[in-house]
Amino acid sequence: MKILLLNGTIVGKKTRTLLEEIDKYIEKLPQSHDTKIIDLENFEMQFVDGRPAEQYNEDMQTLIKEVEDADAYVIATPIFQGSIPGTLKNLFDAVSPLAMRYKPVSIVANGGTLQHHLVIENQLKPILNYFRCMVTPNYVYTHTNHFSTQGELIDEDVRNRLKEMTRVFNQYMQMSQEIEPDK
C-alpha cells in the first residue's frame, strides 16, 4: 500500500519527528508498504478558492495528486491557537471529497497544553469523517514536554502509543482492502 505521512504544518519539527518514528514502525510491519513523508513547508501552497485543480500552481497540483493517490494516511499536526493549521485545512479544501473515502487514517498531534487534544476530536475528526475515512480510534497526542529542547522524542510512553497506533493502523489497512469500491 502507498502510505502518505503528511506533516500538516510549515513551521516546527515535532510533528516531523513523530512521523519519522511512525515510519520506523511501519517498516517493521509484516507486509511491505511504500511510505512517503510530505512536509507542507516544502511546497508553495496557494489559497484554495474553488477553481479546478489544474489551475493551481505545480506544487498544489503535486500535493493534491499525492493525497488523492495514497491508499492510507498518517496525518501529523501541531495545534495552534486551539485549531489545526490553516495550511492543513487548505490542503483538505483542495482534495476531492471522494479521494479519501474508506482509506485508513491515523492522527498524531502536538500542542502546548494538554487540553488541545480536543482539537483532534472537534476539528480534525469531523473533516476526516466528511471524507468518510476509516479513522483509527487511538490517535496520539503529544505535549512539548515529550520532546527534548532539540525536538527529539524523549518519552517512552509516547513511543509505545505510536507503536500501538501503528499496529491498529495496519489492521485498518487490511480491512480497507476488503471494502468493495463504489460503482
UniProtKB/TrEMBL annotation:
Annotated SUPFAM superfamilies: Flavoproteins
Keywords: Flavoprotein, FMN, Oxidoreductase
InterPro entries: Flavoprotein-like_sf (IPR029039), FMN_Rdtase-like_dom (IPR005025), NAD(P)H-dep_FMN_reductase (IPR051814)
Domain NADPH-dependent FMN reductase-like: 1-143
GO molecular function: oxidoreductase activity
Organism name: Halobacillus yeomjeoni
Family matches, as Pfam families: FMN_red
Protein name per Swiss-Prot or TrEMBL: NAD(P)H-dependent oxidoreductase
